[in-house]
Amino acid sequence: MTPDSEEKQTVDLKKSGELASARRRRLLQVGGASVLITASSRPVWAGGAVCSDSALASANLSGDDSYIGCGISAGWWGSQTTKWPLYIGVTLSTLFADVFGVITVSVKDKGKYIDVKLFETETLADVLGADGGGPKNIGKHVAGAYLNALTFPNTNANGGFAYSPSDVQNMYSGLNGAGEGLIGTVAAALEAANNKYDGTTEKPAI
Fold it and tell me: For the chain, which residues make up each domain, given as ranges?
């Protein structure tokens, strides 16, 4: 093989790799559409009475509820770690990856896309307490949504948190291989669900 043909082959391979990478990102964005449908298909609730453990229990027994929905901000869960309810089955030492698995996302770095694994060793408490933007920002909203889903189960027609624990897990795992745009959209949807009823949800005491 001549130097010229060898150089041409190198360029062709490079272009082929770039095209394959771009095609993969497009397919992943399309593949993530089901995640977005999950994130945006829940009803937009109006304000209601206070959501509490007793209100949830009463609604489950009677079939009626006076509140509309439940949820607490990820910020509260991150700053009030001593008040996580014991009955939800997760603790400060529970690894994020044990609940959600490890996903790889596509991040643009210095003009190129690189694959980054998220939250391989962090606990739920670590992720909730982390600051900063970028793809890792989704972690706190995912963890907060999961704690809300466990604490305020959506077991009747109106009440509880917007998503079930498995909904939150599936939304996160559905982001495997996704880019920052899709990750940001899902993060915003979960943040909105966490915050929607923060002002009318009774916070756990222990």
Answer: 1-31, 33-200
